[in-house]
Give the backbone structure.
Amino acid sequence: MAYDKFTVLQSTAVPLPTENVDTDQIIPARFLKATEREGFGDNLFRDWRYDVEGNPKKDFVLNDRTYSGKILVAGKNFGSGSSREHAVWALYDYGFRCVVSSFFADIFKNNCLNIGVLPVTISPEFADLLFTAIAADPNSAVEVNLPQQTITLLATGASESFDINEYKKDNMQHGFDDIDYLINMAAEIDGFEASR
Amino acid sequence: MEKNTLFDKIWDAHVIKSVPAGPDVFFIDKHFIHEVTSPVAFLNLELRGIGVKYPNRTIATPDHNVPTVDQDQTIKDKLSRMQVEKLRENCAKYGIELHDLGSAHHGIVHVIGPELGVTQPGMTIVCGDSHTSTHGAFGAIAFGIGTSEVEMVLATQCIMQSKAKKMRISVEGTLGKGVTSKDIILYIISKISAAGATGYFVEYAGSAIQSLSMEARMTICNMSIEMGARGGLIAPDETTFAYLKGKQYAPKGADWDKAVAHWKTLKTDDGAIFDKELVFEAADIEPMITYGTNPGMGIKVTGNIPSTQGMEGSNKTSYLKSLDYMGFVPGEAVKGKLVDYVFVGSCTNGRIEDIRAVAQFVKGHQKADNITAWIVPGSREVEKMAHEEGLVKILEDAGFELRQPGCSACLAMNDDKIPSGKYAVSTSNRNFEGRQGPGARTMLASPLTVAAVAITGRITDPREVF
């Protein structure tokens, strides 16, 4: 479905340097039993965020009021494992609009782009720089500029550019999705199908 | 003439259009759906006011959240019931073939597709499930997609994706005694890591791969995603054709001959270029087991958990967090450790060959007292064969509990959960934290190793038991 337009986002960021965070951690399978897209944010990182009695775990970053923001800065190989788009729905529903990592799993990255959460791939060095800056000052603001394809730590001006293909970039900026595109290709698809 | 890989040949034949500086518009031959990742896709179709473009190219089955007992009764869990009922409703509304609970071909979507002969060489196949890569064993391009893409396929029979890079992994030589295809794939993932093939589509080749049955090939392709690969495939050959011949949806008569003639062209040309090539020796592979919380954290059953030497920063922190979850320390051996549960099943190892292997090994033995042993066939067809071949009797005599088909304890969406803190040695595909239930500690292994563990109650090298 058409989603929020994404152009320039300035926000503080939440750091999660753990590596190989799989989508089972982002949203455990037992919370996938819904027939609609709403409400997944409550169970985002459920088993890292809450103990078995449902009490918040003090040592998990989402329970630390020091950190907040619409940008999640994540460790290497973020979003591996299951193809569940619910993982991105949960991040979105919680309030994240952008996920930054030095390495994303493929399906997760596609799922992000398909619902309008911007995945930004940065160098391991820039990831370290962000983690260090956020640890030193949790109020550090980060700017993600999609038209310019840059991510900047505003306090110091440290900046890096990131890749995104022109088609997806255009979709994100206008809030279009792939079905909007594919529907207009109905005749070509019918022709192709008939030849199979 | 241009030299192409098998992946190129199938991919290129399904591209309707390449968007400039963008993805390919990619046609999908077959689409599998299940109850968990499809409801929102159907809901969105309704909101857009559009229907399903080619209902005959989609096949449905409820597998992820279904109970594995009393499948003839109404599902007790309200939310599971709602999802399954929604799937029935959507299939009826749009005219989609449904293999419902209790029907002759109900089962895990990646088990029934091949059983029915729906999965064929040269096809493009997607499903809202990352283990769709299983179907690559037939020389198809098959991969998992998200729900937005499920919606795209229902609405247009296409998705928009960029072509992956190409990797070939060859395994040469003869496998040792007690070493299975599960050990091959766990070995490969342990060598290249859980992210070692991200961005690639993998072709598995080499004499050790060619010698495998279709079931064993499916186990390998199934776990391609566990090293980050978009998917994995194996060139079709006589083993493939023999498996498919006579299957319900396989071509018949003259169509069969024509299909086989085409399928024989589906192989990588000599001299075709891959972006990456890896070669492993079958003789180096031993029975494997995982000790951590991603499938790349695997060692031979007789091995020791790696030390933290050379690790630093978040790499070391993440590693120690993982071992802490498992209750293990760096450097120690896993062999001999007590286990609480064994699970035989899933789209990785829930096929008849897997159940035969376990039954053959436990015949005449008793499971250890400390073990709860679950065996969950991948489909009704597998269950039926297991009964007919007397395997169920052997397994029940050994103390295994046979359950009805479904994804079951692989992802514990139903009641088949491993309790917190308990160790399960499992034939499934993921050892993530909480995968088999909150707090559950999963160790992945082959059906043979699982059989050995069931008998001894401890982590065991299957070559020493049988």
User: Anything to note?
Assistant: Residues 124-136 of chain A form the longest helix (13 residues).
